[in-house]
Amino acid sequence: MERFFTDPNTPKRFRSGPLGSHVDQFANDLFGLGYTRKTIRYHLRIVDHFGRWLKRRKRITTDITDEDVRRYVNQRGCVRNGDASAIMRMLGLLRERGIVKTRAGDVLPPAQEVIQGFSCYLQQERALALPTIANYQRYASAF
Prior knowledge:
Order of helices and strands: HHHHHHH
Radius of gyration: 15 Å
Helix content: 55-70%
Distance between the termini: 40 Å
Structural class: mainly alpha
Number of helices: 7
Number of strands: 0
């Protein structure tokens, strides 16, 4: 993770957070998917902030749900388009590793899964800007 930050204290701070034991893998996954260093740094900051938000609410990492993500995004106020998807990507990593269990309420409806996959395609393969992706998501949801 040190390759993404010039200040050596930043990775240490991220590793000390509630989701800290998973941030290295998360950063490597994003890098492997072709995300830029700037985007990776931003995603790591969002995940760190979300982890500290969970800690203040005395939520245990193994009990994180999609509803926690929704509450965080709603309470945070001004949120960029990619914030929720960054947290959901981290949540997906935690589920893949068996740290967080998938609950029935956490499973996306099939139409929403298609839209999320389409959004990932637009971001990763087509390199579209997040506002453009959000615009496409609105049209896809209406469809």
